[in-house]
Amino acid sequence: MATEATEATGAAASGSGEDRPTLTVDELAARAGVTVRTIRFYGTRGLLPPPVIGPRRVGHYGPEHLSRLALIEELQHQGMTLAAIERYLEQLPADLSAHDLAIHRALVATWAPDAPEEMTRAELERRAGRALRDEDLDRLAAMDVLARTEAEDAYRVDPGLLRLGMRLLDVPIAHETILASRTVLVEHTRAAAQELTRLFRDEVWGPYRERESDPEHVAAMKSLSAHVQPLVVQALVTAFQRSLKEELGAAFRAQ
User: Fold this and answer.
1) Model confidence, pTM
2) pLDDT tens, residue by residue, 62-90
3) Residues 182-238: pLDDT tens digits?
4) Which of 142, 159, 200, 211 has the fewest C-beta atoms under 10 angstroms from its C-beta?
5) What are phi and psi of 117, to 5 degrees?
6) Angle CA 29–35–38, to nearest 5
7) Which sequence spans correspond to the domains of the chain?
8) Torsion 201-207-209-212 (CA) sign
9) Is the model's pLDDT at 101 over the cut of 60?
10) Is the Cβ–Cβ distance between 142 and 178 less than 8 Å?
């Protein structure tokens, strides 16, 4: 989070529509579930970009800041230090949108999923930051973001997927297409996970088992195990984003 001086000199470029930065630092802190002090500290460490400076030199934050805070929180849950998180974020493409960051966070979260939370509709809408129609709830359920419970007006919500789901609500995609897309993603990501697990087992874990009497090697393996999952997820997401961009570009050029 930026200091007062940083906020005063932050870039004044702004987006358009719903991506336009509109949250004050207090509102951002409330939405992200952190303190204002934490936001300012992250800004001084370069973990958050500076806010857009509006009238009366008030800093405004947008979806990218919210998504970055969620990603930082998830990486901390994975056991990464702030220094490691800084290095992780520095390696991400500079032009990642809030939507891209939400995808990163959701995929990192799959290594250690948040426990589902039960919420009323009012609590869900407060967490989402907007009112939700019945059809919105149906779409979120199709994406496995939430599930209805036996209790009236109560939902079991996956906090790790909620922000991504909210972003996808405004994408004009049919309900059936969402279901089909999810099937494709589950099928192919499972295949990638199986192959990566086999590779890790045969090329890394196997040699370790042969040298487990070596204290230094044991320590190195413990350190690797603590950090390999977020790194693999970062590589997977980056490769997928590049491949998808290339495939979409080729498909539209062929029209």
Assistant:
1) 0.41
2) 888 988 898 888 788 766 778 888 888 88
3) 788 778 877 887 787 777 767 666 665 555 555 555 555 555 555 566 667 667 777
4) 211
5) -115, 140
6) 105
7) 4-96, 117-169, 175-253
8) negative
9) yes
10) yes
